[in-house]
Structures are given as structure tokens and as C-alpha cells.
Write a structure and sequence with these properties.
The structure is a homodimer.
Chain A (H helix, E strand, L loop, with lengths): L2 E5 L2 E5 L11 E11 L1 H8 L11 E8 L8 E4 L2 E2 L5 H4 L10 E2 L12 E5 L3 E3 L6 H4 L2 H13 L7 E5 L3 H11 L4 E6 L2 H8 L4 E4 L10 E6 L4 H10 E9 L7 E3 L1 H6 L3 E4 L5 H9 L9 E6 L3 H8 L6 E5 L4
Parallel strand pairs in A: 10-11, 10-13, 11-12, 13-14, 14-16, 17-18
Antiparallel strand pairs in A: 1-2, 3-4, 3-8, 3-18, 4-5, 5-9, 6-7
Helix pairs in contact in A: 4-5, 4-9
């Protein structure tokens, strides 16, 4: 089969990949569409060591698996858990000590014609959700993880720092809580998507991010300036959610965290079912976030495009439904 | 009156300080006993800029104030709040934007014959609590702040890193939750105080701090090694409480916090009433923590003693009850 192959920080199209054979309890999924995520770009930069097919945001059709799933459009949770380790037995399967992660850790991903995943990871896509929209299920679930971890009330003043792919989804989901929301970014055209949905936005230095004026700040940039802006915005006893990974180590004024009794929470993968519900209800709009689309064969060009500053989501068209 | 005076990182005894005149709503307190805290040592090192009388752990007798308090033994909360700013109006008075802090920020402290504090900050000391024991009310309240911020259940595996003054009180209070507790330290003689009360302890490299084996870790050392040990001990989605301030900035692997979805919480001043209740009930033993006592006149020597590695609490005898 065809697929993108990452090795030694080089991404290339291969036509000689074997169609994977699903192990016990896994399904064979024919990939229809996939999205390029910032993590994929970081894999290519070598921030994480990975050799294989990248890609973890996808929609596919089950080709082999349980009867009720065969022929269904599905999305899939990316962490494949062992079910036996302490985190698994405590219900924290996304933190399985022995996990593989689709297209990220020890498991070939979605930028190929076929993939396999445990059957328990698959979620059928409701008919009213388009394949393009369903491709956003995984990052939308990651945005919703915030509300799994932190109570966000309608009275809360919330700052989202970052107008990229993740900031867009975080802004849209937090807006639904009724909270007093500000999304701060650097790109007026990106922020425009949010302000059209009634979200208050502000650009760079122009935005008067009130120092200490927010109960909750969500850092979606993965850079030190974004962290600093989120931290500055927090009131004493406020909560700072880290949604992005950082290249290298972060230097933190830990004494100020103690004096102000700040809570910092790392946040990663989230729940798929509510993400699909919100997409089905049309409460989250993802179409404006699609900047470009490429066939699988032009995947490396798609990666180049996704790395451009003004670009949001790049989709890869991989197979027919 | 006599008092210790800190100026330009020099601590000296002065005999020419005026007895303070209590402003409206404040009481004049004759200081009986006071304790030297790590923060006091850091003030002398110049980590914080402060000129005046240091000292914030004390027991005194009210000399002028509301009738029902005059003649009473009291302890006092150290943050004097304005009552009008946003944090005060939200009930976060220890985070008052305009606060002064006894012996730390803009308010002369307890290492002198007299101090003043707002009447609302004072708590009468129950008869069954000795003056020595009551001097520990403030740091004991700080230890209890952890349980104001984080639910600690009997089923939780909890690691306390540090066997100093704060680690001793944190270990004793967390022990009362029934949690599965380990206090890791570097000083067998200090850990002995805890193991005599049934707390499991471990020394330095000897202690097999199970990597990823704890739900909650409390960092009580204020140094980078302590932070690293606490972080290593945490399971995914675990909570790291920072109880100590750090000289300089802390370098953190923020991506690992995101991937493991760790919560980091800064923790400072806590509630006095439960601290006094536990002291009155004899549930926290502080006597073994008193390493030495000095008269006020030998306060600078007391500071030198308090800075020694093997020493826990140094008390200053300041006045009669």
C-alpha cells in the first residue's frame, strides 16, 4: 500500500508498505481522510524519536473487524492500552504504561491507505457529521479534556492564548460554557474565525490582557511567550492549563507559583464521544479551519504547507468512503 | 522597645525601637515567644527585599484592643488585608492585592517586644495548648493549606519530600488522613521524629522512592533535587504540591507535565482554627521539633543556629505571659 514514511527526520512517500494485519481484538481500517497536526510537524523536526507512518487524526471505514462495524465510517482514539498495568486498572487508559500511540509511539499511523487499531478505540461517525468535520474529532476531544480536568463555570473569566488549530477548538468549546472568554493571538485572520462566532479576541500587543484578571488561562502556543502571557493573566489561585508541548525545558518562577498559589495542569488526549456529539449538533464549526487539502501522494508538500504561519489545518485525501 | 532589625541583609539588636501605635481596628500585642522560619533566613540572605523587624510565627498577649481579647494569649494570621480589592471581595484575603505581611512585607514583625495586627487576624490560644506549641500555629496552618487545596483520601499514596520544619508538620498532618504516606529526607535524626509517630520514612538514596508510585507528592525542600524527586515519584495525572519557595527560577520539563497530565499547585498560608484544634487535641507533636531557644537579645545568634543543617525550630523568648 501507499503511505508516508518518517525515518531520520525525513518524510517520504512509499508505495511498498505492506497492508497491516490486524492483531487479535484489532480492526483493519481503510483510511479516507487525515489531518496534519502540530505534533506531526514536531515528529519530522525530530523533537520525538519515531520511525514509521505518522498521522493520528483520521476518518476511515472498517474493512475487517466486528460485524456491526464493518463498512462503518469511524474515528479512533489514538492510545492503545494494555488493560493490565496500574494506570489501566485505575481507569487511566490514555496513560497506560505500555501504550502505543497511533502514528506517534510504536504504532504506524493514519498517513497510509490502511491502519489497525483496537476495536475498543473506534467510534462510528454519526451520519450528520461530514468526513472533513469528523477528521477534527481527535483534536476536538483534546480541547474537551480541559473540561474533564477543570470545572469551567459561566462566571469564570477565561483567557485562551493562541489562535492556531488547538486555540481555535479550545476557544469554541469553552465558549459553549458561557464563560467570559478572551482568545489572544497574533493573526487577525485566524482570530476572525472566532470573533465571527461571538468570541472576544485580541491581537498581540494590541490586546490589553488584564494582568491578574483571569480565573483560568489555557496555553495553546507551546512557546515561552505564550506561557508568560497566560501566567500574567492569572489572578492569585488561578489555574493555568498547558495544552501544548514545549521544545526544550521551560524556566518557571516557582516561588511566584507558591506565593500566588497557582495551579498548573498539563492536558493531553480527551473524550471522543462528546466531541462527536458537538460536531453532530453543529456546535463547533471546523470548516473555516481547513486551509488546504492534498492527496496522500503529495503528503510531503502538505507537510510543508502545514508548517506555514498563516495556515491552520491541512487535510490529506487518502481513500474513498 | 527592644527588637531585631533587618536592613541591607544585616540583622542586629536595637533597643531604640518605638512601641508601635495600633491603627484603627488593630490590637497591640506584647510578644511572648517567636519562631525562626526558613523565610526569615531567606530575608536575611536578601532573597526578598525587606527592611524592618522580621518574624511572623509568634504567641503574644493582647495589651490593647477589644475588651474580650485584652490579657488573652493569641496567635495571629500574618496577612493583613484591605478588604476592598477584588481578591478580598472574593474571599481570598491571603491574596489581598494591597496586603502587608507580618515581618515580611511592609509590616514590622514578631522579633520585638510589641507588634500590632488587625483584630480580625488574632486567634485566642486554647488553655491546653502551651505557648511553645502555639508558636507552631502559623507553619502548621501552612501545612493544612494542602488539604484546603487538594482532596487527600485514605486510599491515596502520598510522598512528602523534605524532613525539615515544614516537612515535619506536613508529614504529621497528612498522616492524620490515613493516607499511605512516605516522607523522604536526608537526616536520619529528623526522620526519627516522624517514624516514632508511625510515619514511614526513608533517607536519601537509600529510600526506594517508587518511580510513578504516588498519587500526590508534596515538595518541602525548596531545592531542585527535591522538586525532581517529588516529580519522579508521581504517577500520570498525579498532583505535585509546592510548599516551599525557590531561590531563582526552576527549569521544568513542561512537555512531560502535558503528556503525563500532571497538576502542580503552589501552596502558601493556611487556616489557623484547625491548626489550633489539632494542637489542642494533641494530634500534632511539636516539642521534638524545638532544637534551641535564645532570648531576644541573642536573636542574631539564634539566626545562626537556625541556619545549621541539623537544626529544626529555634525559638526566641521575648517576654513574660
Amino acid at each position: 500500500m501507499k503511505g508516508l514514511w518518517l525515518e531520520n527526520q525525513k518524510l517520504r512517500l512509499r508505495g511498498d508498505l505492506p497492508v497491516p494485519e490486524p492483531p487479535l481484538h484489532e480492526a483493519l481500517v481503510k483510511v479516507v481522510r487525515a489531518g496534519i497536526c502540530s505534533t506531526d510537524l514536531e515528529l519530522v523536526k525530530g523533537y520525538y524519536s519515531y520511525t514509521g507512518v505518522p498521522g493520528h487524526e483520521f476518518v476511515g471505514v472498517v474493512e475487517r473487524g466486528p460485524g456491526e462495524l464493518v463498512g462503518q465510517r469511524v474515528v479512533g482514539e489514538i492510545n492503545a492500552a494494555c488493560g493490565a498495568c496500574a494506570p489501566c486498572r485505575s481507569g487511566r487508559r490514555t496513560h497506560c504504561a505500555n501504550r502505543t500511540v497511533l502514528g506517534i509511539v510504536g504504532r504506524d499511523g493514519a498517513f497510509a491507505e490502511y491502519l489497525t487499531l483496537p476495536v475498543e478505540n473506534l467510534h462510528p461517525v454519526p451520519a450528520q457529521v461530514s468526513t472533513d468535520a469528523a477528521t477534527f474529532t481527535e483534536p476536538l476531544a483534546a480541547a474537551l479534556e480541559i473540561q474533564e480536568q477543570v470545572r469551567v463555570g459561566p462566571d469564570d473569566r477565561v483567557l485562551v492564548v493562541g489562535d492556531g488549530k488547538l486555540g481555535q477548538l479550545v476557544g469554541q468549546t469553552l465558549r459553549l460554557t458561557g464563560c467570559d472568554l478572551l482568545v489572544a493571538g497574533r493573526h487577525p485572520d485566524k482570530l476572525e474565525h472566532l470573533s465571527r462566532r461571538g468570541v472576544r479576541t485580541g491581537v498581540g500587543g494590541e490586546v490589553e490582557v488584564e494582568v491578574g484578571g483571569f480565573d483560568l488561562a489555557v496555553e495553546c502556543t507551546g512557546n515561552v511567550e505564550g506561557f508568560a502571557q497566560a501566567r500574567r493573566g492569572l489572578r492569585p489561585r488561578g489555574t493555568l492549563v498547558l495544552k501544548s508541548t514545549y521544545a526544550g525545558r521551560l524556566s518557571v518562577d516557582a516561588s511566584a507559583l507558591v506565593v500566588d498559589e497557582i495551579t498548573v495542569i498539563g492536558s493531553r488526549c480527551g473524550p471522543f464521544a462528546p466531541a462527536l456529539r458537538l460536531l453532530a449538533a453543529g456546535e463547533v464549526e471546523v470548516r473555516p479551519l481547513i486551509s488546504a487539502r492534498y492527496p496522500l501522494e503529495e503528503g510531503p508538500e502538505g507537510f510543508d504547507k502545514a508548517a506555514e504561519k498563516e495556515v491552520l489545518k491541512v487535510l490529506l485525501d487518502i481513500g474513498d468512503e
